[in-house]
Amino acid sequence: MISEATLLTILASLALGLLVAVTAGVAYLTTIEWRDRRRIDREKREKRGR
Fold this sequence. Notes:
Strand content: under 5%
Helix content: over 70%
Number of helices: 1
Largest sheet: none
Radius of gyration: 22 Å
Number of domains: 1
């Protein structure tokens, strides 16, 4: 049988892993959105300049 300490260690590790994964996902999506917004703004400026 798994001891209580082992179970808590596994659950804490799982929670930490999920936290890291979600944080990395949010950072990725934020970076992609920022890059797309810059590209769209640049295209708008180029159209106005013509």
